[in-house]
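Renewal narrative, Specific Aim 1. Our central claim is that a sequence can be written position by position from structural information alone. The example that follows is taken directly from our test logs and has not been curated for this report. It begins with the C-alpha cells describing the chain, in the order in which they were read.
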C-alpha cells in the first residue's frame, strides 16, 4: 500500500506522515492492518519522537491493541462509578 492510498482521504494524517522518515512510514504501512492503527502509531511517533527501532518494538508489543483494550475497561468502569470518577482517577501530582 502506498502513502497516497493510505492517507489521501485524511488531511491530518497526510500532514503527520510527512513529519516522519521513510523508514517510519514503511514500518507503519507494512505492519498495521487498519487506518485507526496507522493513525495511532503515526501520532505516537510524532508525539514521542520514536526511532524506527522503538516504533518496531511498540508494534511488536501490540501497544495499540493493549491501549484500546484498556480504554474500554476504563470507560466501562467510569460509567459504573458515575460522578465519582474524577475523584477515583485523580492524578496524584495535581491534587
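The sequence written for that structure reads:
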Amino acid at each position: 500500500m502506498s502513502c497516497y492510498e493510505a492517507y489521501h482521504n485524511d488531511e491530518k494524517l497526510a500532514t503527520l506522515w510527512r513529519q516522519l522518515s521513510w523508514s517510519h512510514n514503511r514500518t507503519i504501512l507494512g505492519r498495521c492492518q487498519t487506518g485507526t492503527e496507522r493513525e495511532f502509531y503515526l501520532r505516537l511517533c510524532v508525539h514521542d519522537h520514536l526511532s524506527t527501532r522503538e516504533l518496531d518494538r511498540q508494534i511488536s508489543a501490540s501497544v495499540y491493541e493493549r491501549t484500546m483494550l484498556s480504554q474500554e475497561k476504563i470507560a466501562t468502569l467510569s460509567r459504573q462509578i458515575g460522578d465519582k470518577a474524577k475523584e477515583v482517577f485523580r492524578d496524584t501530582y495535581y491534587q
